[in-house]
Amino acid sequence: MKIGNREWMLWREGEPFSQRFKATLSEDGNTITGRWEIAEDGTTYATDLDLIFRRMGAEPSIATS
User: Fold this and answer.
1) Hey, what long-range contacts does 19-25 have (CB within 8 A, 24 or more apart)?
2) What are phi and psi of 42, to 5 degrees?
3) CB atoms within 10 A of CB 25
4) Are strands 31-39 and 2-4 parallel, antiparallel or unpaired?
């Protein structure tokens, strides 16, 4: 897994298939937009799932450093 610069990435290689996920955090910190991809043959990736997470009812708290 890798997180930084408002990007979140996960990946997994191996049997029975490879997967990867990439998402972006919105400027205001309230939305994560991402996509899971799958490679059943281990190399050719196709979209498996698009997703959007939205914060509901709370002020964002984004740590800066």
Assistant:
1) 19/48, 20/45, 23/51
2) 90, -10
3) 19
4) unpaired
State how far the Cα of 29 lies from the Cα of 15, in Å rounded to an integer. 35
- For residue 1 the two structure tokens come to 């897994």
14-62 confidence digits (pLDDT tens):
899 999 999 999 999 999 999 999 999 989 999 999 999 999 886 656 6
Q: Which amino acid, residue 24?
A: T
The single-letter code of the amino acid at 35 is: R
Question: In terms of Cα–Cα distance, which of 26, 31, 30 is closest to 58?
Answer: 30
- pTM higher than the cut 0.90: no
- Angle (nearest 5°) at CA 52 between 7 and 14: 60
